[in-house]
Amino acid sequence: MSELYFAYRNNEIDKAKKYLEELSGADINRRESNGSTALHVACYYGNEDIVKLLLQSGASQAIRNTRFDLTVYQEARSHKIRKLFERPDDSDRFICYLSTNEWTLVDIHVAEASNKFRDYLKSIFDKSDLKDMISTISEFYIEDTRQISSRYVDVSNSLGKTIYGELLTSALIDRKHTRRLSYGAISNKNGAIIDWFLTKAVDEVDPIFIVQAYTSTTNFYQIVNKHLSLRLLDNFKWDISNAFLRPFRRLVIDVYDEEEVAGLFAAIFIHCPLLEPYSFVRQCFRGMLISEDDLKIYHVGSLIMNKTFLSASKQQAVAKLFAGEGQTSNLRQTPDQKNIQWSALCTYNIKSNRSALQIESISEVQCEEEVLIMPL
Asked: What is the DSSP code (8-state) at residue 279?
């Protein structure tokens, strides 16, 4: 065992802080010879302060130890430590705001088009290499903009005035801004967590790490869903079918825009056979905050299509908690104390295979019993 292991086990705070200043995300999440990570060790021995320190440094809650196949949540010695792994009550993970872009009213023609679009995502997945897809997602979200800019400007110069050179040069100018906008809202701590998951996904060619990045206790899911809802599913204009076929594909892989990369998320989540064991067909629940104005645009028989991934739970209690049940006084009210919005519960009956994934076993917060509903 390393000195680091014993510092975490023996609750040596000062040593632990010193080690953490020098460790990368991969080092923090490395399994010791007994198959446990530093976070496993701290949880097992009930060292709450060490647990807090590791979580602040971006330690992953999703890793299982190799000997007992247990998560850190399962190995935690106390209820107080387990509470550290729960998502904050103010998270909007399991709640819907109808004024946002996660839903849209559709007619029968759009509903039919959405089915065709899912088939199109299947064709993209079938003709693409999984490693390429995962690498594209990873490079888009975690690679430093300046490194990409320097490398690809050199490539574009070598290509001269060809169409590829012009494409690279113009796209990189945009990428300098869009990458900052899309990823700048993530803190250094959360960025380290996402970097670790996406790097593992590439190294092991395993989409489960992509799922874990999405479902992590960060705001990464908000960024992915924003990219999905902006234009991709609004207008069904996404078309990168030639991106995997044209010459120089490895030279232009980093010039995808947000919707295209989010589309790769959807293609993998919906169609990758490695995720088939997680397919969910049953009932699940999601909280909702709704106003009278929201209700006016809906009626019985309305066709509604979700444009993003939606997090639901197999447990009503979880959805009710995030919807603020029993906390009516905390919801938005008029100056004369009349409610503007109300807490409600959405019940989803999942009937089609791969329309949802049950991911509690690979989630960082297993007690939520999360079900991830697919877009479209």
From this structure: B
Closest CA to 314 of 243, 262, 374, 372: 372
Containing structural domain, residue 242: 193-275
Q: What digits encode the pLDDT tens for the residues 163-203?
A: 333 333 333 334 333 333 344 467 777 888 888 999 999 99
With DSSP H G I counted as helix, E B as strand and the rest as coil, what are the percentages for the chain, rounded to 5? 55, 10, 35
Burial of 207 (0-12, 13-18, 19+ CB in 10 A): buried
Write the burial class of residue 5 (CB in 10 Å: 0-12 exposed, 13-18 middle, 19+ buried). middle
Residue 199 lies in a domain: yes
Write down which residue in 67, 83, 99 finishes a domain. Answer: 83
Please give the structure tokens belonging to residue 75: 């190995």
29 is a domain residue:
yes
pTM for this prediction: 0.70
For residue 339, what are the β-bridge partners? 333
- 262 inside domain: yes
Domain boundary among 83, 112, 135: 83
